[in-house]
Design brief:
The complex is a heterodimer.
Chain A: E1 7-16, E2 19-29, E3 34-38, H1 45-53, E4 61-68, E5 71-72, H2 78-87, E6 89-92, H3 96-99, H4 106-117, H5 122-135, H6 154-166, E7 172-176, H7 184-201, E8 204-209, H8 212-218, E9 221-226, E10 229-235, H9 236-241, H10 246-255, H11 264-271, E11 276-286, E12 298-309, E13 314-318, H12 325-332, E14 340-345, E15 348-349, H13 355-362, E16 365-368, H14 382-387, H15 399-412, H16 429-441, E17 447-451, H17 459-476, E18 479-484, H18 487-493, E19 496-501, E20 504-510, H19 511-516, H20 521-531
Parallel strand pairs in A: 3-8, 3-9, 6-7, 7-8, 13-18, 13-19, 16-17, 17-18
Antiparallel strand pairs in A: 1-2, 1-4, 4-5, 9-10, 11-12, 11-14, 14-15, 19-20
Chain B: H1 2-29, H2 62-97, H3 100-115, H4 118-129, H5 133-160, H6 163-170, H7 175-211, H8 223-230, H9 239-267
Helix pairs in contact in B: 1-2, 1-9, 2-3, 2-5, 2-7, 3-5, 4-5, 5-7, 6-7, 7-8, 7-9, 8-9
The chains are: A alpha/beta, B mainly alpha.
Chain lengths: ~525, ~270
């Protein structure tokens, strides 16, 4: 490490309206190191990355010192800062879809970065773009340059974003949650790529994330940010093994989800007839015709899937995005009808039920969605939202009954009855998931299906919501079918798991058994990429 | 800066639209003179204290004619929008909620209606039914249906993909109830913009039909008539053409500012 750090933040303080999102942050990034910046959402991580790049909203005032190779950046003109961004510092954002312009080919977008910052000709810029794409592992084939963002998968898009950030060989790369939006296996590949690029080119990397496992695998030094202050920093191993700050310990505890021990009661419960029994269910969709004359090709998105959930059991369903998990859920909830196979609830056929039977059976099963923002009608109050499934009751409750049931449901998920009068947008992500759970509980179902219910939450909140599910199971005897792409979460909560791959169930068993000895190659790959980062 | 200018536009739209509708409402009970009262002696007078906007070739008070004309224009455009909304919005909701086949049926029916030039069909309609204010209402209203059906369907389809609609289905609610409780309230802002635009188009269409003698029938006053009557007199009394023309432009501008402002507020 050289004496003068590459980047030095000295008591940086950002004031935005009445808030102080960054309150005296001091940090150094040295040449060639990977520094991790970890913190819960709202701790100011992303804002810090923007402050370094001089991209804060105009309303923000920054005080303190920000030095690049000893030169102050705060008093530079916008033109100098524009040169600094891209040339000296590259940036990779979380959401690969919105970071790319959908109307331009990826070649044009990378070449544009080159031409903005150098005197390169169009041909030279295109050549640099092609080289950058090779460096991020997207073949040397020239056709890559001509592709549009929508033709690429999430992982490929993130590789393009990385190519754009490194094409000018900056000295520092800032990556803000670069893999949070990706699947476990893709995540591992992209992180591996980042590490390799940084090592090969002697670049420094400032990696912003809330994921402790990512940090452990990638970084040499770690800084913990809490509400705009750095509460702890030091070598990664030291911080992870013995966090000094209370906040660091909390973050680590929340991240280290304990694998669950198979429970005896669960095994007993399974001896009875299953609550949910899915047998050989098939769902096909027709692909668009290639020409007006050809017949539409069917595609099986759920291919002869069978699974069971017993009373009081938490069952995990793992699979990558696009593996058919969500389609399967829609079949289980009788929102779509299967082409063949059946779904039974307590022995009664649910998948082809109609009218009064359908309504009666629906009472047994409810759902919690991933997106704590899209799951509520923005025009509805919490009371109306939570009370919606009461529609399933044969006798509609009176206004007073309705109110008391909503209050009871809110209490059950740790909210207060007064919250009923507020609107969902007034709540945080974790609280919204509690509202969603209250809505699912109000019709007193036997089974709640959770579709990536904690994936959008940050780790502290995630731990709380998982604990709540466990508590509800214990107290109310509700079963859960817990769908996720996150193995750690599923391992922490599920008694039994199913692994879905390309529309089929490829593996099932006790959680501990599957994790100890996966039988299918896909499961093994998934476990390896999650747990050995 | 930009936001401030947009706000001014929106406010101007609100003020102009309210003013015109108030004038139309006032004309129902009161106008300075009887708009039908002919006084050849006082024909083609310039603006004066007695006749603020002068008189026309038959000595009728121009201001009273304009006010009474506003009543006809606003009335016809409003009823036409009502017809369009009354049929178009339910059709759009139905197309968005129902299986593919019904969706196709509704939308292809729409295309059929779209395929005819609206003025031509209005002329055809008046040829069959005879001219009159009600025929104008129906002719303009029918052409509001496909536009509103299409806008409703597109907006509703987006709402249907959201999780809260799935949750409502899991709560056992049917397509009609979900359309009413969830979809419609959430697309109302979009519809408000479109309804304003259709209203302004209705004003222009009514004036056009009356100008051709196919809408409101004389002696009932209408802006289109005033324009038509003034046509032969442009050399001697240009103000008779300019005044109703400017009135139409001003009202339509106000409605469009209102519509644009609503859209901007929704986007913000």
């Amino acid at each position: 490490m050289s004496a003068e750090p590459l980047l030095r933040l000295d008591e940086i303080r950002v004031v935005l309206a009445t808030k102080i999102p960054l309150d005296g942050v001091s940090l150094e990034v040295h040449a060639g190191e990977i520094l991790g910046l970890v913190g819960a959402s709202g701790s100011g991580k992303s804002l810090m990355a923007l402050a370094i790049l001089g991209l804060l909203p105009r309303a923000a005032t920054v005080t303190g010192g920000l030095y690049w190779r000893g030169r102050s950046l705060l008093d530079q003109s916008p033109a100098v800062l524009r040169g600094f961004r891209g040339r000296e510092v590259g940036m990779v954002f979380q959401e690969p879809m919105t970071a790319l312009n959908p109307l331009l080919t990826i070649g044009a977008q990378i070449a544009e970065t080159v031409r903005l910052h150098t005197a390169a000709t169009r041909a030279e810029a295109t050549r640099s773009a092609a080289n950058a794409l090779v460096r991020v592992g997207l073949g040397s084939d020239a056709s890559w340059l001509a592709r549009y963002p929508h033709e690429l998968s999430g992982g490929q898009r993130q590789r393009v974003a990385i190519a754009m950030a490194i094409v000018l060989s900056p000295a520092l790369l800032i990556a803000d949650e670069p893999t949070t939006a990706l699947d476990a296996t893709t995540q591992a590949q992209v992180l591996g790529l980042l590490k390799e690029i940084v090592r090969d080119s002697g670049m420094s990397l400032l990696l912003v994330s809330h994921d402790m496992a990512v940090m452990a695998a990638m970084t040499t030094r770690l800084a913990v940010l809490e509400r705009g202050r750095i509460v702890e920093q030091g070598p990664t191993t030291a911080v992870l093994e013995g966090p000094q700050s209370a906040y660091g310990r909390r973050l680590l505890d929340a991240a280290r989800l304990e694998p669950r021990v198979a429970r005896v009661e669960a095994a007993v419960a399974r001896a009875e007839a299953p609550l949910l029994e899915v047998s050989n269910i098939v769902r096909e969709i027709s692909l668009p015709r290639r020409s007006p004359w050809s017949r539409p090709l069917p595609r099986r998105i759920v291919d002869a899937v069978s699974l069971t959930v017993s009373r009081g059991e938490i069952v995990g369903l793992i699979g990558e995005s696009g593996s058919g998990k969500t389609s399967l859920l829609r079949l289980i909830l009788a929102l779509d009808r299967p082409q063949s196979g059946s779904v039974r609830l307590s022995g009664e056929i649910f998948s082809s039920a109609r009218g009064a039977d359908l309504r009666r059976l629906r009472r047994q099963i409810q759902i919690v969605f991933q997106d704590p923002y899209g799951s509520f009608d923005p025009e509805w109050s919490v009371e109306r939202v939570v009370a919606e499934p009461l529609n399933l009751l044969e006798v509609q409750p009176t206004q007073a009954e309705r109110r008391s049931r909503v209050a009871a449901a809110l209490l059950a998920v740790g909210l207060s009855p007064e919250d009923a009068r507020r609107y969902p947008h007034e709540f945080s992500g974790g609280q919204r998931q509690r509202i969603a759970l209250a809505r699912a509980l109000i019709s007193e179902p036997a089974l709640i299906v959770c579709d990536e219910a904690v994936s959008a939450l940050d780790i502290l909140v995630r731990a709380q919501v998982l604990a709540l599910l466990e508590e509800l199971r214990g107290r109310l005897g509700v079963s859960f079918l817990f769908v996720s792409h996150d193995l750690q979460v599923v391992r922490a909560i599920a008694d039994r798991i199913y692994v879905m791959f390309r529309g089929r169930i490829v593996e099932e068993g006790e959680t501990t058994a599957v994790f100890a000895a996966p039988r299918h190659a896909f499961t093994a790959e998934l476990i390896r990429s999650t747990l050995t980062r | 800066m930009k936001i401030a200018r947009r706000r001014i536009g929106f406010l101007a739209g609100v003020v102009i639209t309210t003013l015109f509708i108030a004038i139309a409402a006032l004309a129902i009970v009161w106008t300075p003179y009887d708009p039908a009262a002919i006084a050849i002696v006082h024909k083609l007078q310039p603006p004066s204290a007695l006749h603020w906007l002068g008189t026309d070739q038959l000595g009728r008070d121009e201001l009273s004619l304009l006010m009474a004309g506003a009543k006809a224009s606003v009335g016809v455009a409003f009823l036409a929008v009502l017809i369009g909304a009354g049929c178009g919005i339910p059709l759009g909701l139905l197309a968005a909620a129902r299986p593919r086949t019904i969706d196709e049926l509704v939308m292809r029916g729409n295309d059929l209606l779209f395929a005819f030039p609206s003025l031509l069909l209005a002329i055809l309609l008046t040829a069959v039914l005879g001219p009159g204010a009600w025929v104008a209402v129906v002719a303009i209203g029918v052409f509001n249906i496909p536009v509103l059906a299409r806008v409703t369907r597109a907006a509703a389809l987006r709402i249907w993909t959201l999780d809260y609609c799935l949750a409502a289905r899991a709560a056992g609610k049917g397509a009609a109830l979900i359309s009413w409780e969830h979809v419609l309230p959430n697309i109302l802002p979009i519809l408000a913009v479109q309804l304003t635009i259709q209203f302004s188009l209705g004003i222009v269409a009514e004036a056009g039909l009356s100008y051709l003698g196919l809408g409101v029938q004389p002696p009932a006053p209408s802006w289109g008539h005033m324009l038509g009557d003034a046509q032969t007199l442009t050399a001697i009394a240009p103000s008779l053409a300019v005044i109703p023309g400017a009135t139409i432009v001003c009202f339509v501008l106000g409605l469009n500012l209102l519509g644009g402002g609503l859209r901007a507020r929704r986007a913000a």
